[in-house]
Amino acid sequence: MYCKDSNSFEKNDIPKTVEAKIAVLTPKEDKDFIVRKIVLKNGGSMPNHTNEIQHQQYVLSGTAKVVVGDEEFQAKQGDFIYIPAGVNHHYEACYDSDYEFLCMITTKDDEIKML
User: Fold this and answer.
1) Counting CB atoms within 10 angstroms of each CB, which of 4, 64, 76, 81 has the fewest?
2) Residues in Cβ contact with 72 at an 8 Å cutoff, skipping those fewer than 6 apart
3) Which element (helix H / strand E) includes 113?
4) Whole-angstrom Cα distance, residue 55 to residue 19?
5) Alpha-carbon distance 40 to 30, whole Å?
6) 58 CB-near residues (< 8 Å, 6+ apart)
7) Is the whole model's pTM more than 0.85, yes or no?
8) Rounded CA gap, 91 and 94, in Å?
């Protein structure tokens, strides 16, 4: 058990992204789900891709263009985003602010396919 400041976790670059960092907040011994904190710096982006597992995301701060399938959203603080398994999605922090969100996934095997 622990209660820690999410800013104290190790942040790593995310491959194939621009100005994006990720911190895994869930203890390694948890076998059910993973919570990750992702920050896209202003001007940062994640390319269009699919995952074999669903994503559930909660926006902590900032605003970004988030495209899920054929729908484009201006995601902002307080928004919840659900991305079904196999649906393409990408992000762009293009509204003059950093974009920070929690991303919750299962621990099932995942394959990321860049589009």
Assistant:
1) 4
2) 65, 66
3) strand 112-114
4) 21
5) 26
6) 79, 80, 81, 101, 102, 104
7) yes
8) 9
Mind giving me the DSSP string for 6-56?
Answer: GGGS--EEPTT-EEEEEEE-S-TT--SEEEEEEEEEEEEEEEEEEESS-EE
Question: Which residue carries 């076998």 as its tokens?
Answer: 31
CA distance 8 to 66: 27
Domains of the chain: 6-114 (2.60.120.10)
pLDDT tens digits in sequence order for the chain, 115 residues long? 789 999 999 999 999 999 999 999 998 887 889 999 999 999 999 999 999 999 999 999 999 999 999 999 999 999 999 999 999 999 999 999 999 999 999 999 899 999 9
